[in-house]
Write a structure and sequence with these properties.
heterodimer, A: 217 residues, mainly alpha, two-stranded antiparallel sheet, B: 301 residues, alpha/beta, six-stranded mixed beta sheet, 28% strand, elongated
Chain lengths: 217, 301
């Protein structure tokens, strides 16, 4: 029964999310390829292949967490949208507990994210091979893909939680975002919300912090 | 197992905008076909949502098939088929996908029956849910509810807006199922004549309250309009319940009574009055009169 429930949940989500999935795979594959693309052209003028590759890697570093965050939000929104449209009546009259429904959806979501993570990993390996990296430069396609997967999952789970928890939690989330933005303009509340949210080791958002370098020394 | 398929005790729920369910005490006997009547906005759908755990009561208790709601909700839902007032299936599914998805969540799912019923209803497997006509949607909803082989069916206006042919198809599938399985049916509707044919119990809702609940026979047979000649007596000590009294211009008084039985005309004679005519009401008239009485009673209170 459980396997059957998971299978139909996965199939239903895959059908609904097909366009988002295709977009996710293409974008995830493009980022590492774009990081190494055009380097040979620049080397002719500027020299210093290793420096140029590292510079490109640093340039593209913020794109990975931004894309992971967007994918997670897209996946979650598209995942729960049919339930929002049907005012939760269908899903909540199925004979399973609500926590189990959430777990089934979450598990199906994780499976559906895998192609994008794999695309990033494979494209990273291909990019590193094609770019014929200097010996001082190392590529980290595996670690980057894992981190990308974890960040997408965190974004997906948190957005799902927001959708499931209702208005009070939305307002709380919104208030938190407003406070972070206000703090960004130099207003101090005694503690740094950004530090707590992104740098505390127990915070799920910790995965987004730091540099996301595809290439490193 | 309890003799009651559905039981609510003091079920109360309040919305922000003032609408409320007020102390609803439902008793739906197991095996009954229970018609849940009431005008639009009476609280029928809200009561059903409370039975299915879709909203939590402010006060009171709900039990479905002996399971406490909401603590044992999944166990109750596993034995309950539900057809909502508005279609609630995912729009992007096809008919085949909707059937497969629904079946995967129900242990007692009868795939062979579902397929035969799909063919009987003429539902194309590859038709998307959002492309189905109202009639096709009604058929699919009843198919999904019945193919899970439930002990209890909760149907919220299942034939509302359907043409007579589809309505007959849907009701005949329902009646066949009930005959075969001896399931309990809780069906809400404002189409009184439709329920008259299939129900053996009736509950009447108005303004969030359960105004009356009784076997259909008593509901139909016990309410009469009594036309009197001469002076009307004082109703104290009458063997029936006086619901309303009116005096049409130029004629004797008319009483609307409940719990009427043959021979009760004699009571009027003992009170110095006489019965000119006893008029049997059809179900719709009974429904309207009971509502009028309930509203008058509330205003008086």
């Amino acid at each position: 029964m459980n396997g059957k429930m998971f299978r139909v949940t996965l199939a239903a989500q895959a059908r609904y999310l097909a366009p988002v999935l295709a977009l996710a795979v293409v974008v995830a594959a493009l980022i590492p390829l774009l990081t190494v693309q055009g380097v040979d052209e620049q080397v002719r003028w500027w020299g210093g292949r290793a420096e140029l590759l590292l510079e490109q890697s640093r340039l593209f570093a913020p794109v990975y967490p931004a894309v992971a965050l967007s994918f997670g939000i897209f996946f979650a929104a598209a995942n729960w949208l049919p339930d929002v449209w049907t005012r939760w009546v269908y899903v909540f009259t199925l004979p399973v507990s609500r926590s189990r429904v959430a777990l089934l959806r979450l598990a199906a979501g994780i499976v559906l994210m895998t192609p994008a993570v794999l695309a990033l990993w494979i494209a990273g390996m291909v990019g590193a091979r094609v770019a014929s990296l200097p010996s001082v430069v190392e590529a980290h396609p595996g670690a980057l893909a894992l981190r990308f997967g974890a960040a997408t999952l965190v974004s997906y789970a948190l957005t799902s939680l927001l959708v499931l928890m209702g208005r009070r939690v939305w307002y709380l989330g919104l208030a938190l975002i407003v406070l972070v933005v206000v703090q960004g303009f130099g207003v101090h509340f005694g503690v740094s919300l950004t530090d707590i949210l992104f740098l505390h080791p127990l915070s799920p958002l910790h995965v987004f912090a730091g540099q996301w370098l595809f290439l490193d020394v | 197992m309890s003799d009651l398929a559905i039981r609510t005790d003091g079920l109360t729920w309040r919305a922000d905008k003032g609408f409320a369910l007020d102390q609803v005490d439902l008793r739906v006997p197991a095996g009954a076909v229970y018609g849940f009547l009431g005008p639009n906005g009476a609280g029928k759908t809200t009561t059903i949502r409370a039975l299915l755990g879709l909203l939590g009561p402010t006060q009171g208790k709900v039990a479905v098939l002996g399971h406490d709601i909401p603590s044992e909700l999944p166990r109750a839902l596993a034995r309950t088929g539900y057809v909502p007032e508005r279609p609630h299936l995912y729009h992007h599914f096809t008919v085949a996908q909707a059937i497969e998805y629904h079946g995967a969540f129900h242990a007692g799912w009868d795939a062979a029956w579902a397929e035969s019923q799909r063919m009987r209803f003429g539902l194309a497997v590859d038709r998307r849910i959002d492309r189905l006509s109202k009639g096709e949607m009604g058929k699919l909803m009843i198919l999904l509810a019945l193919a899970q082989r439930p002990e209890l069916l909760i149907l919220d206006e299942p034939t509302d807006g359907l043409d007579p042919v589809v309505r007959r198809d849907v009701l005949s599938a329902l009646v066949e199922y009930v005959d075969e399985r001896k399931a309990t049916v809780f069906i809400s509707s404002h189409l009184v004549h439709e329920l008259e044919r299939i129900c053996d119990w009736v509950g009447l809702m108005d303004s969030g309250r359960l105004v009356a609940e009784m076997p259909m026979g008593r509901f139909k047979a016990g309410v009469r309009r009594i036309r009197l000649n001469g002076k009307a007596p004082v109703p104290d000590g009458a063997p029936f319940t006086l619901l309303a009294r009116e005096t049409p211009v130029g004629r004797g008084e008319e009483w609307l009574v409940r719990d009427w039985a043959d021979g009760m005309e004699q009571w009027f004679v003992t009170q110095g009055s006489a019965v000119r005519e006893v008029v049997a009401l059809d179900l719709e008239d009974v429904f309207v009169e009971l509502l009028r009485w309930a509203r008058f009673d509330r205003r008086s209170a």
